[in-house]
Each structure stands twice: as structure tokens, then as C-alpha cells.
Amino acid sequence: MTMDNLAHVGHAADPMATATVARDPSDDALMAWRRELDELHERTRAKIGAEDIAYIEKVLTWSRRFEIAGRGLLHISLDPLTWSAGVFALWIHKQLETTELAHNILHGTYDHVPGGEHVQRNFRSKLPVWVPGWKHAHNVLHHGFTNIVGKDPDARFGSSRLLENVPRRWFHRFQLAEVAFNWFNLMGNLNLHVCGLVDFYMRSAGDDDVLPDRTFATIARMHARAVKAAAPYIAREYIVYPALAGPGFLKVLAGNWLSSVMRNVFSGAAIYSSHFGEEVSDYPEGTRAGDRAHWYAMQLATTKNFDVPRAVSILVGALDRQVEHHFFPKLPPNRLREITGEFRAICEKHGMAYHSAPWGTTLRGLVRRALQLGSREVHAP
Questions:
Q1: More confident: 213 or 377
Q2: Quick check: 164 and 378 in contact, CB under 8 A?
Q3: What is the pTM (predicted TM-score) of this model?
Q4: Considering only Cβ atoms within 10 Å of each terminal Cβ, which end of the chain, N or C, has fewer?
Q5: β partners of residue 356
Q6: Nearest to 138 by CA among 267, 356, 326, 265
Q7: What is the per-residue DSSP string for 224-289?
């Protein structure tokens, strides 16, 4: 069975549910591929334990150290060099908190690992994003229906057209500017996105990705949730900490703002790089996989990796290992990095296309794809 027709087999309500599908001569090979990946998953899961808890708690400790150093340097800085060092340290903290910590912990990665309760107690997300909404939009919808337009809310973050099955509108010719805006304001836009307010303000009724309905009570509740999620972050970063600096209010305000923008842009570049581009497929609403093997094939077709040094991989929370993450979303980030070589070898053994390229190459491809899809209609051959 080719990758071109994998998307259209089966009609189960759940993307991983079993359904009766037409047999194809290559289905046996597909099932053999799936079995090897499942075996890799089970072997890796069996290793998870104290080592993984120690790793993530070490990351948490270093994140806090960078926060203390960054905020301290911003407060005492009397010269551009000290101030810049403070911004850099605070960015490292915010980057680790957002990706290596929050993204993986909120996936439930450590929920059933002995000692995982300590991770949950020690980590409290300070991000300006409504957490229950993120868990539903990301863990359930995005991971369950990756790049299926109309089901995956991330398939059209904001009003961008980065996938072929998103209808083209006149404003898409300017979408590079929108992508830059989305990266620049990633956390704020994400909060509006998972609260359904992007649906409310940018889409017509009946075309909502996240918003459950448009009753007055629901709209008011979603606005309240968005404000409740964002207000503590805004108060802490842009009022309280700057005020504690007294006459240094503006320099601390500027440092806190710049470190947040750096986190947003870096994270946005990582997220977009792993789901959009010329190598990535997308599917129309109603697409279903008939079984786990075909769901795996769809995940492989809708994700890609980018190659970075280990230190950068930690800063992006293993989003550079997006393929492995989408197959096994509850594996800790250190395990995703560990299995990459064997995972790729299994795919290549069975003739399944595994996409990975240097990050710079990936970003250039993303820009080309955004321009291509924004300038004219593009459909898969």
C-alpha cells in the first residue's frame, strides 16, 4: 500500500480504532513494520524509571537556577553586557520550562512512573496558556488527528495556509508576515487558540476547530479562562518584577519582554519545522486510519524531524524528534533521543519514508512552502 492511499482507508470514528479495510498486497509488510516499532516501544517503556525522573528533575533544577541568575542579573545590571547575560539566562529558563518541561510533563509522560508524583508536585506551569484547553487541543485533537484539516486545530493555526487542504484566501499571500507574528506572540496566540477565541474571532459559525459552541455563556467562559491563564504571567513579568527594581523598572521590563520573545520565536520555529513543509502530507476532513499500522503510516507522513546538537534538542524539548514523539507521545524526551537511530533503521528497512534534515534546511523549506501555498492553489498530484 502506497503512502498516497494510506490516508483513505477505513472509516472508524477513532483514528486508531480497528475497522474492516480492503486488503492490499503490501499490508503484511506494513503490519511487520508496525510490530517492530511496537516492540521498540515496549522495550523502551520497560526501561523508564528512576533514571528518567532524575533527568527531568535535573532539568527542573537547572531551569530554576537560570531563572534566579537571569532575574538577578537584570536587577543589578549597570551595563549592556550584564543586562544581556541576564536576558540570555532568563531565556534559557523560559525555554526549558516551555518545551523540555511543560510540553512533556503535560503530556502525562511521568504520570505512571514511580517517583513521577514528585515531578508533578515540583513543577507548576507558569506559562500564560490555559492548561486543560491545551491538553485537549494538543494531546487529544492534534495527536489523534495530525494534519487532518477540520479535526486537527493546529492544521490552521491562526489563518495561515501551510497545508494543501486548507482553502486558499486572498490574505494568504501575506502569510509569511502572519507566521512571523505567530512566532513573535506564540504563547499569547496559543492561549487564544486553545480557548477557542481564534475560532470565535477569525472563523465563521460552523467552522470552529476548538470552540464547542457559540452560546453567550461559552464565549464568556472562554474569555474568562484566557484572562485567568494570562493575567498572572503578565503581572509577574511586566509589573511585579520590574517594580521590584525601582528605578531599574524599564530595564527589567525590557529584559523580561525580550526573553519571552526569544522563547516564543525559538519554540515557534521548532514547532512549525516539524509539521509543515514540502515533505509533509495533510488530509481532508473525514480521513480515518483503519488500524494502528495505517495510523502509524499517517503519523510518519505528517511529521518530520530536524537535526540539531543535543544541547539544542534539550532547548526545544525533543521537538526535533517529532516523528518519534508522535508515535510514542508519552516517552520521556531523553528516551526519544535514545531510540532515534533504531527507529529510523526500522523505517528504512521497511521502505517507509523518514524525513529529517538540518534545521537550517528545514526552515528554508518552510519559507518556500509558505510562499508557494500563499501565492497560488497547490494540490497533491
A1: 213
A2: yes
A3: 0.89
A4: C
A5: 305
A6: 326
A7: HHHHHHHHHHHHIIIIIHHHHTGGGHHHHHHHHHHHHHHHHHHHHHHHHHTT-STT---B-TT---
